[in-house]
Design a protein that fits this description.
This protein is an alpha/beta fold and 317 residues long. 51% of the residues lie in helices and 16% in strands. The protein contains ten helices and eight strands. The protein has an eight-stranded mixed beta sheet with strand order 7-5-6-4-1-2-3-8, with helices on both faces. The longest helix is centred in the last third of the chain and has 33 residues. It binds uridine-5'-diphosphate and magnesium ion.
């Protein structure tokens, strides 16, 4: 029988875990033709998440878990899950039931019968989300798709089901600065997109503050586009041309009308502006350099402190 591993990243989810497990039991009953395993990844939770996972593991051997030494972020949790999943099919799903488990049997059927390698999901609406957050997200997707060759699908969730060959391809991309939405697109393969309405969290609170989302979007932009670097050169070139024009104008004006001592305020403004643009451009270069620096250190993406299987793939990812 084929095996399906469902990766579930969890960070402080002690309330949602039991609800999730109950729902998944119903789904696993429906999916008799495949051997389903739940692989919970505890992303350094500070509440009782790990002990709930341990209880579930004792109760039901289909529940496995990995536990990080600290909070490494959802991207790291997904990577750890993919690395330790041994199913022929691998799914990634949030624990808060915002990724409807009812879709899983349908996704499995699509992979089995329609010859796709991967079924991905996206939200058709953003209801229930604060207006400002929706606006910022929409703008981010518009911007990144303009400057990046890899298409980042608006509203795409991390909820997806993949065949083994795609999982192996994703694992080949072992970069430290991870942006899954880009990575899954970058590796290619035949993808079918399913849409569903946004649902509220089953319990607990979202871990994504606006600040975290902003850093995440920068991760996406810098991970999948070098356009900001060329932006610096373009602005530089524009300012050079402008300054030559201005020098020409000043020489002509002085020759024709003499040299009255005025215009210093405008001079100060220009100095400030050019200084600002220079700093901005240096900053952009610095951001890329910082990412390269972290990448060259080859630090592990996550560190395990505990897991249900002692023979899981080594200590580090
Ligand atoms: N999550 C994680 N590490 C983190 C933050 C979140 O593993 O540092 C998990 C979280 O437990 C949940 C999923 O990622 O299963 C999605 O998080 P959340 O529901 O807070 O995000 P949202 O659905 O609001 O985008
Ligand atoms: Mg959620």
């Amino acid at each position: 029988m084929k095996k399906l591993t469902v990766i579930v990243p969890c960070y402080n989810e002690q309330e949602t875990l039991p609800i999730y497990y109950k729902e998944m039991c119903k789904i696993m009953l429906q999916m008799q033709d495949v051997d389903t395993e739940l692989l919970f990844v505890d992303d350094g939770s500070t509440d009782g998440t790990l002990s709930v996972m341990k209880d579930l593991h004792t109760l039901d051997e289909r529940c496995q878990y990995l536990s990080f030494s600290r909070n490494f972020g959802k991207e790291a949790a997904i990577y750890a899950g993919l690395k330790n999943a041994d199913g022929d099919y691998v799914a990634i799903m949030d624990v808060d039931l915002q990724d409807p488990p009812e879709l899983l049997p349908k996704m499995y059927q699509i992979l089995e019968k329609e010859g796709y390698d991967n079924v991905a999901t996206k939200r058709s609406t953003r209801t229930g989300e604060p207006k400002i957050r929706s606006f910022l997200s929409e703008s981010f997707y518009k911007f990144i798709n303009r400057i990046s060759k890899t298409e980042i699908v608006n509203g795409a969730r991390d909820y997806r089901l993949m065949k083994r060959k795609m999982v192996d391809a994703v694992l080949e991309m072992s970069e430290y600065n991870r942006f899954s939405k880009g990575i899954f697109e970058w590796v290619g393969f035949r993808t079918k997109w399913l849409e569903y309405e946004n649902v509220e969290r089953s319990a607990g609170e979202t871990k994504w503050s606006l600040r975290k989302l902003f850093t995440y979007s920068l991760e996406g932009i810098m991970g999948f586009s070098v356009a900001p670097l060329s932006l610096a050169s373009i602005i530089g070139l524009l300012f050079c041309v402008l300054s030559f024009l201005m020098i020409f104008v000043i020489i002509v004006r002085t020759a024709v009308w003499g040299d009255p001592v005025d215009g210093w305020p405008s001079l100060v403004c220009i100095t400030f502006m050019v200084g600002g643009v220079q700093l901005l451009c240096t900053g952009i270069v610095g951001q890329y350099l910082a990412k390269t620096y972290l990448e060259t250190k080859h630090r592990p993406i996550y560190i395990l402190k505990d897991s249900s299987e002692e023979s899981c793939n080594g200590e580090k990812g």
